[in-house]
Amino acid sequence: MLKLMEFAYWTGVKLHIVHVSHPRTIDLIKQFKAQGVKVTCETCYPYLLLDINALDEFGPKAKNNPPLRHPEEVAGLWQHLEAGDIELISSDHAPWGAEHKDPGKDNIFKASSGMPGVEIMTPLMFDSTVAKGTMTPVQFAKVMSQHPAEVFGIPGKGKIAIGFDADFAVIDPEATWVIDENQFRSHSKISPFHGKEVKGKVIQTIVRGTTVYDGEQVTVEPGFGSFVPGSAYKGATVGGKRGL
């Protein structure tokens, strides 16, 4: 990471650091930002909501890469998030089936790293921030939606404004419910958050003005969505070929 930021310093390119799991990383990023480096970063929801003790409690369900950190380091990440030092939160969705996790019950090194997140990240983070009064709804929307669109230059996304796509996630802030891994639509039916009660439930998802999720079921056919490349993607080299 230090080499990447040093390269960014000398070349002037934009740099985005993913999977930040330790507050020391943010400290270093802030130092390079102060020197004019155009560097942004993200953390993943497990690094905010779990710590190293989760491995003892949940076993391979909680195996992640980079690994989970100690409680005091998790607290440091939260301090940086609340100070605005972390631009966005991602899921790092890893849809491993039981066949990839179960071998780790006897030997943790045989389990694949990662956990599913796209279905539960928003309510989990809402429950841990807005519902507890540590973040306003506007601040929450910025790290979950606006900043990702801005960092990657995704047109028409991230804001409620004229000229932007009518994309919304409607959250009932008072609804409480229990996460059930067996109800996941993902291939992965494994989560250390199984059985956790959270406050805040997505009751409607709207994409380009069309309701795609009504709080219980997906209401459109597969293929309704479309890939929207950001400016960071255009012209990039992917697999030896130029990006779209």
Characterise the protein shown here.
This protein has one domain (2-242): TIM Barrel (Alpha-Beta Barrel), CATH 3.20.20.140. The model is unreliable at 237-244 (pLDDT under 50). With 244 residues, the chain is an alpha/beta fold. A three-stranded parallel β-sheet has the order 1-2-3. A three-stranded antiparallel β-sheet has the order 4-5-6, covered by helices on one side. Strands 7-8 form a two-stranded antiparallel ribbon. The protein is built from eight helices and eight strands, in the order H-E-H-E-H-H-H-E-H-H-H-E-E-E-E-E.
What distinguishing features does this structure have?
8 strands, alpha/beta, three-stranded parallel beta sheet, TIM Barrel, 244 residues, disordered C terminus, 8 helices, single chain
Briefly note the CATH topology name: TIM Barrel
Summing up helix and strand content along with how strands pair, one would put the structural category as alpha/beta
Helicity level: 25-40%
Number of E-type strands: 8
- In what order do the strands lie side by side in the largest sheet? 1-2-3
Number of domains: 1
Q: Strand portion, in percent?
A: 15-25%
CATH level-4 homologous superfamily? Metal-dependent hydrolases
What is the topological layout?
Blueprint: H1 2-11, E1 15-17, H2 23-34, E2 39-44, H3 45-49, H4 53-58, H5 71-82, E3 88-90, H6 98-101, H7 121-128, H8 137-151, E4 168-178, E5 197-207, E6 210-213, E7 237-238, E8 241-242
Parallel strand pairs: 1-2, 2-3
Antiparallel strand pairs: 4-5, 5-6, 7-8
